[in-house]
Specification:
The protein is mainly alpha-helical. It is built from 11 helices and no strands. Helix 5 packs antiparallel against helix 11 (260-278).
Length: 279
């Protein structure tokens, strides 16, 4: 059941990230990010009221708030990367790096013990990133390298994704879904002071952005439930399979092009994720 919940979370995130990436190319990415978090807050609070709890603990809410701070940074950077880079490149970079960081965090901080197969997946991460970026450094010096800039954003976003996943997994089941709601509130609080002025968006775009945020909140709820039924290292890896859908859609719907090195990198990224899942 835990694996199914994590995979469903990945499916939700895949749909949301594709929609958010497309929207970020039509509307300022900062507005998409803030409106998405507002939509996620409304959805999470509504869902939290529907789930009975035995007692909401402050520690769980704090873990949720830390997770939300990571979400805010991750989505801001990811939407910026998707607005100027190829979706089929930015998404795998953010995912595979966040998986490696989450597994390492689970080992060093929370006592998880991955198998040798999982360590093989972590070892594949570095060359996969280099190939996905087109054989260039992840921090390109050329200012006109749009793909390189998107890759850089995806790499930085992965740190926020890892914080989001690791922190939320520490919330206990007794608090129900309120840690997710606390995370969305923290994300809005982080983004609102500097980005409220960017909210000049049409009504339809506002609704679209808020729906992506609601979908992301649903994905986090499913992930939280998965961590309560599955080892953290396994749940976070399965939930991180989300790039598969936006990559496929980016290549088929948006007609993005990648060179041979990037194809090799994408295959290496998939191999790393599978190895981590098997571990």
């Amino acid at each position: 059941m835990g694996a199914l919940l994590a995979l469903t979370s990945a499916l939700c995130y895949g749909i949301v990230d594709f929609a958010g990436g497309v929207l970020s190319r039509r509307v300022l990415f900062t507005a998409v990010t803030l409106l998405g978090q507002l939509g996620g807050l409304l959805f999470a609070v509504g869902a939290a009221f529907l789930v009975p709890v035995s007692g909401v603990h402050l520690a769980d809410l704090c873990w949720g708030a830390v997770s939300g701070t990571g979400s805010a940074a991750a989505m801001l950077l990811l939407n910026r990367g998707l607005s100027r880079g190829a979706m089929s490149v930015v998404m795998p970079v953010s995912a595979v790096t966040s998986v490696a960081l989450s597994v390492l965090g689970g080992v060093l901080v929370f006592g998880d013990r991955p198998t040798p197969v999982a360590w093989m997946g972590i070892a594949v991460t570095a060359p996969a990133l280099w190939l996905v970026s087109g054989g260039r450094t992840a921090f390109p010096q050329s200012p006109d390298a749009a793909t390189g800039q998107g890759t850089q954003d995806g790499l930085l976003a992965s740190i926020g994704v890892a914080v989001q996943y690791l922190a939320l997994a520490q919330a206990g089941p007794s608090s129900g879904l309120w840690p997710v709601a606390a995370g969305r509130l923290a994300a809005v609080a982080v983004l609102l002071p500097t980005m409220a002025r960017h909210l000049r968006v049409s009504a339809i775009r506002t609704v679209q952005a808020m729906l992506t945020g609601a979908g992301a909140a649903l994905a986090l709820i499913l992930y939280l439930l998965a961590t309560q039924r599955q080892m953290l290292a396994v749940a976070v890896v399965l939930a991180s399979l989300y790039p598969a859908l936006p990559v496929i859609l980016g290549l088929s719907v948006l007609h993005e092009r990648v060179d041979r090195r990037q194809v090799a990198g994408l295959l290496s990224t998939a191999a790393a994720t599978v190895l981590l899942a098997l571990g």
